[in-house]
Every structure is written in C-alpha cells, then in structure tokens.
Write a structure and sequence with these properties.
Layout (H helix, E strand, L loop, with lengths): L1 H22 L5 H24 L8 H26 L5 H4 L26 E5 L4 E5 L18 E6 L2 H4 L9 H12 L4 E5 L7 H11 L7 E6 L3 H8 L20 H6 L1 H10 L9 H28 L3 E6 L3 H6 L7 H7 L6 E2 L1 H7 L20 H17 L13
Parallel strand pairs: 3-4, 3-5, 5-6, 6-7
Antiparallel strand pairs: 1-2
Helix pairs in contact: 1-2, 2-3, 6-15, 8-11, 11-13
C-alpha cells in the first residue's frame, strides 16, 4: 500500500511538471523524457494496484505486462533520442540551430499587423550555414530609403518573403539587387529596384504592405514573388480577413495537441510519417481543404493588386520559384502551387521550376550549387541566377526598353 501511495505522489509531481512543460512548449530532451515518464508511471501504478487486490489473474501476467510497459517506455526514450540526433522530424527553425520550438500559428501582436522589422535597426542573424546582417530603413524594411518625389529614376518594387529579402547572401547579392544591375546594364533609363521582401511574409501581407505603406510611390513595375511556403502560411493566417480594425491580426488557432507535437519528436513521427499529417498538424483531407482555400485567397489578392495597379498604369509580374524540396521532387508538392499557377494564368506568371530543372539541370545530388544544404535558401549563385532570369523576362516582355530594341517599338 505504501508503495502505491509513493508511486501516486510521484505521478502527481511528474504530472504537474509535465503540465508546465506543455504550457511553455519546453522542447528539451529531458522534458520529453518527463512527458513519456508520466504514462509509464500511470500504467505501473495501475498494475501495482491490481497486484495488491484479490483479483485473480493468470500466472506471471502482471509481471509480463510490467515488463512490456517498461520496454515500450525505454524504446520510446531511445527512439526520441535518435529522432533528435538525426533531426528527421525537426522544424525548419530547429534545423538551422534554434533550440526553442516556434509555432507557425504564433505571431507578435505588436508587429504582426504589417509584418515588418523595427525601423532603423540592425538585424543580426546567425544560422547553421551562414551569418548575415541587415540594416532596416525608416519603414522597417531592410532596404535603402525611398524618395517618392524622385522622378528621374524609374522604380521597380519587389514583394516577397525571405527569398526576396535575400536570406543566405549579402544585401547587394539578393535577386532584386542582381535584377537592378542587370537592367541598368541594358536599359536606356536609370532604374532603382526596391526590395520590400520580408522573411516570413506571404502574398496577403505583401498586398497589404503595398496598399498601406507603398501605394503613393509611382512604380513602373511591381513584382510579386511566390513559393510553396505561401499556401500553408495563408492557410494558417487567413486572407485579408486576418487584418482587424484595431490594427491587430487574427490567425487560425492551432490544434489543441500542438504542445505534444512541440515537445515530443515521437509524436511528430507518428502524426507525419504514419498518419500523413502536415508540418502544421493538419490531416491530409483537412490540409487539402485549407490549402485550396488559401490558394483562392492568394489568387484574389494578386488579381486585386493587378487590377488596381493597372488603373494607375503600373505593370505587374508574378514570379514563382522552387524551394530545394521542389527540386528533389521535380515538381511542386501537395500544397497546391501548380493549381495556383493555373488559377492566375491570366497574369502570365513566370514559373522558374522548369528553368532550374531543365536549363540548369538541378537535382537532389547537385542542388547545393544554388541552395544552402541545411538552411534551404538560395546561396549567392542561386540569387544571381534568379535575378538575371527575371531581368531577361522583363526585357523579353518589353517592360524594360534597351537601346538596341528601340527600333522595334
């Protein structure tokens, strides 16, 4: 009886600790062991209680049950450790060295309405593959200050996420800066390419930023950059309805079991590899539904932007570029990027996946020539290729006039 009482007290203590672990998304290996210890102690207590009663059971049954429970507990601990070492179920941020789990459903209430950095700040990011610094302007964008009154320079606006911002290379090697150099080598006019890419952004945020803070500038061209991450991000964040009248945003609520997903890699393995759940903890059927809705919301934002810019005589281009996983699969995944490209066909989007696969010959073996292996962003060469390719597309569309082509106009 005393043994059961002591086991019960230990169970209560471990339960309280586990509650705090889950409440604070503590993702250390020790915390994972404590979470797995709770069901082990619970089953051990139940077996011990049965042993202390007069209930008849087959010989050695309870001993065998305890041995099985103990073996399962040890196996789960070992498996949890292996998954952590191999990082097979690690999130993107964990793979680049962050120790704390960051929920895709989380947002900073103060910064989330515009999704910009702090104005006039120095950003220092240290990642597994590289380090970089950025200095933000008065808007909180890692770019030069913009002079809307300057009429001598034509202006191109680039909107996108971390791939447009240029994570993985220096400021002067991002694809918008490469685009600027390529255009000015050819064009008869002087061009400034303004990089408004912000890590973690999506096309809805881009459209919101364009209308809210960059609308008064007389742009000659606006380029929206889209990739596979945008669809699940919009599935979580919503479309324009995310923005509230009090200058806050409201995202979709995460599944109630997210703390277990955050803390236990064995839960991630079971849900993702066995049950087919996505990295944002949605079942295959639910994920398809939410991604389809997100794709429609992105389509709406892009078409609205195109319509409103056209009224002002401003041209617009949409560029879709591949992630390294798209290179591995040789196609866009289940997120629905292919469907989005078809839905916005009227905008004549530039799909760079065939270019990377066919013209550059990229595959799973040689992708590191253009992408960082762990972080997954383009390296300097990848951004250079992308910037120069977009420059050629603009010239081919006659959006940029070169002296040699003036006679053709």
């Amino acid at each position: 009886m005393l043994k059961n009482l002591l086991l019960f007290i230990v169970l209560i203590v471990i339960g309280i600790i586990d509650y705090r672990v889950l409440a604070h998304y503590n993702t250390s290996f020790v915390s994972a062991c404590l979470l797995l210890l709770f069901p082990f102690l619970l089953f051990s207590l139940l077996i011990s209680i049965i042993q202390s009663t007069q209930i008849r059971a087959p010989k050695n049954l309870l001993e065998n049950m305890q041995a099985v429970v103990t073996s399962v507990f040890i196996a789960l601990i070992v498996f949890e450790g292996i998954l952590r070492v191999l990082k097979t179920e690690a999130t993107y941020r964990e793979k680049i060295g962050e120790l704390q789990y960051r929920s895709p459903y989380w947002h900073d209430k103060e910064d989330a309405f515009w999704h910009l950095y702090s104005p006039n700040d120095t950003l220092q990011n240290f990642r597994g593959d590289y380090t970089y610094n950025r200095i933000t302007n008065s808007l909180g964008i890692p770019e030069r200050e913009l002079n809307p009154k300057d009429t001598t320079t034509k202006k191109i606006l680039c909107l996108g996420d971390s791939f447009t911002e240029g994570l993985g290379t220096g400021v002067d090697s991002s694809w918008p800066r490469t685009l600027e150099r390529a255009i000015n080598l050819c064009a008869r006019d002087s061009y400034m390419v303004y990089n408004a890419g912000i890590a973690g952004c999506d096309p809805i945020y881009n459209y919101h930023l364009l209308r809210g803070k960059l609308w008064d500038v007389k742009w000659d061209e606006v380029i929206f950059c889209v990739n596979t991450t945008d669809i699940p991000e919009v599935a979580i964040r919503g479309g324009m309805e995310r923005f509230k009248a009090d200058n806050t945003v409201s995202f979709t609520r995460p599944p109630v079991w997210e703390p277990l997903y955050a803390s236990l890699h064995v839960v991630r393995f079971f849900t993702q590899e066995i049950m087919g759940y996505s990295g944002v903890m949605r079942s295959p059927s639910e994920g398809r539904k939410l991604n389809a809705e997100a794709s429609s919301k992105i389509k709406y934002a892009l078409l609205e932007a195109h319509k409103e810019l056209a009224k002002r005589g401003i041209k617009m281009m949409v560029v879709v570029h591949p992630l390294k996983y798209d290179i591995f699969r040789k196609e866009y995944g289940d997120e629905g990027t292919d469907g989005l490209i078809k839905e916005i066909a009227i905008l004549k989007p530039i799909d760079l996946l065939p270019y990377f696969l066919d013209s550059l010959g990229l595959n799973e073996q040689n992708y590191t020539k253009y992408y960082w292996p762990n972080d997954g962003h383009f390296n300097t060469l990848g951004y250079s290729v992308m910037g120069n390719k977009i420059a050629r597309e603009l010239i081919n569309r006659k959006d940029i006039v070169c002296p040699s082509e003036e006679g053709n106009h």
